[in-house]
Amino acid sequence: MGTKAFVVYVKYKTDVLEVSTSAEETCAEFKDRLMAVTSIQPDKQRLLGLKRRKEEGSASLAAKVTDETPIGHLDLSANSAKKPLMLLGTPEAAHASLQRWVLNRPCAFTP
Q1: What is the pLDDT of residues 47-71, one digit of tens each?
Q2: Cα–Cα separations (whole angstroms), residue 108 to 16, 35, 98
Q3: CA 59, 51, 9, 82 torsion: positive or negative?
Q4: Is 17 helix (H, G, I), strand (E, B) or coil?
Q5: Alpha helices per DSSP H over the chain
Q6: Comparing C-alpha atoms, which of 39, 11, 5 is closest to residue 25?
Q7: Mind listing the domains of the chain with CATH numbers?
Q8: Which residues contact 54 (CB under 8 A, 6 or more apart)?
Q9: Which among 17, 18, 22 is positioned nearest to 5, based on CA atoms?
Q10: What is the pTM of this model?
């Protein structure tokens, strides 16, 4: 029996993306989905607003969110189109063009 999919809202630049996921999917798999939409490599992605759900009877938050954390263990109760997670990162193509620009730029400093 499969699990029910749900939508997580993620803001990237000026767009709010609707990314379908399931509770069993890990954060690493979720980042792979985001890469398909944004061209940002998973290791270059920074998701703001991710936090673990409080455990029953615990006063503090559980362990830090990692790539192995299942989406179902995150507190996404406030996630909506009006309050999305925030994605920071630069697409791979932009990294390559910036690197070419820096390498090909004449140096103005002469010793």
Answers
A1: 999 988 876 555 555 568 999 999 9
A2: 41, 37, 18
A3: positive
A4: strand
A5: 27-38, 92-104
A6: 5
A7: 6-104 (3.10.20.90)
A8: 60, 61, 62, 75
A9: 22
A10: 0.76
